[in-house]
From TrEMBL:
Pfam families: TOD1_MUCI70 (PF04765). InterPro entries: TOD1_MUCI70 (IPR006852), TOD1_MUCI70_glycTrfase_dom (IPR048354). This is TOD1/MUCI70 glycosyltransferase-like domain-containing protein. It comes from Gossypium gossypioides (Mexican cotton). Coiled coil: none annotated. Residues 23-341 form the TOD1/MUCI70 glycosyltransferase-like domain.
Length: 355
């Protein structure tokens, strides 16, 4: 990877080739008449008809998380302190990660690789729940002015889902909702530690060739059929729900991946997904909303819904290109170091103890 010196990098003028339309988001929904058991949901109650129409890249208002119920109903979740909301509202470039359910250790970006320019212009925000925050305290990691190293620690209260993996999809897939004034964001799974300067990564993955979204292919699998089989083999999620999702996608045109097909839309139909670089353009934001809505409707295994969402978006809008860069996984490994989850660490220690 040939990275430019970040002191010489200048953000390009936003390309006129990017699709332009006004995307707004549903903020609140009213209780339907006669629905006594109705409960407001974080993602709202999107109908299949609304879901279908949401794929149109046009001026519209769509479901995209953070939907509130009417007055008198409790919050639908993902509540942040006012000071934290004020902080992230000032971010124009954000590096984002999260730890929910105490799943990982806090990995501070490699400080010597982060330039003075990035320290000045980039927000590093780590979302955590209260249980994870207590563990950080117990391990002697106490925030100093709200920061641990480069990370601004933002505690999320009232989690909207009991499944921590699904909660983690909110900052992963909806950075444009959490950071409403950000122009760019870099998502990093908490099992990764950033090894490169954020501005260099924006230049390498987006600016040089005019992309608005960048994600790596999976290191092993390239067909959704293979990914479905692997999820079942490892019992990653309820098999019947996976089948329901997969059958739905096949009925709506999802085909097996063929690497030799010259007309294929992507070099792989399965992303690695732990590292995502975005420009917050209308098309990028729309794709992020659509992908999140699939994760919310079906399973939190986002690799199952990525290719379907991308292909349907492209198919629905043949006159509006989406400049997505699916890069090789070796490039992801060159910019972020992989660590074990806490549960894997314990399992590894236990295995060693039995030898």
């Amino acid at each position: 990877m040939k990275l430019m010196n970040s002191t010489h990098l200048v953000e390009p003028v936003e390309s006129r080739k990017f699709a332009r339309f006004s995307l707004q988001y549903k903020q609140m929904e009213e209780k339907p008449e006669g629905e006594d058991q109705w409960v407001p949901r974080f993602a709202g109650h999107q109908s299949l008809q609304e879901r279908e129409e949401s794929f149109l890249a046009r001026d519209q208002k769509i479901n995209c998380g953070f939907v509130k119920g009417p007055q008198g109903y409790p919050s639908t979740g993902f509540d942040l302190a006012e000071d934290d909301v004020n902080y992230i509202s000032r971010c124009h470039i954000a590096v984002i990660s999260c730890i929910f359910g105490n799943s990982d250790r806090l990995r501070t970006p490699a400080g010597k690789m982060v330039t003075r320019s990035s320290r000045k212009n980039v927000c590093f925000v780590m979302f955590v729940d209260e249980a994870t925050m207590q563990t950080l305290y117990s391990e002697g990691q106490t925030p100093d002015g709200g920061f641990i190293g480069l990370w601004k620690i933002v505690v999320v209260k009232n989690l909207p889902y009991t499944d921590m993996r699904r909660v983690g999809k909110i900052p992963k897939l909806l950075p444009h909702r959490l950071f409403p004034f950000a122009r760019y964001s870099i998502w990093l799974d908490s099992k990764l530690r950033l090894q490169r300067d954020p501005l260099q990564l924006l230049d390498y993955f987006l600016w040089r060739k005019g992309h608005e979204y960048a994600i790596s292919n999976h290191y092993d699998r390239h067909c959704v059929w293979e990914e479905v089989a692997q999820n079942k083999k490892l019992n990653k999620y309820n098999h019947s729900v996976i089948d329901e999702q997969f059958d739905f996608y096949q009925a709506d045109g999802l085909k097996r991946f063929d690497a030799s097909d010259p007309s294929k839309l992507l070099p792989s139909n399965v992303p690695e997904g732990s590292f995502i670089v975005r420009a917050h353009t209308p098309m990028s934001n729309l794709f992020s909303c659509l992908w999140f809505n699939e994760v919310e409707r079906f399973t939190p295994r986002d690799q199952l819904s990525f290719a379907y969402t991308y292909q349907k978006l492209r198919r629905t809008n043949p006159d509006k290109p989406f400049y997505l860069n699916m890069f090789k996984d070796c490039e992801r490994r060159a910019v972020a170091k992989l660590f074990r989850h806490r549960s894997d660490e314990k399992r590894n220690v236990q295995q060693r103890a039995t030898l």
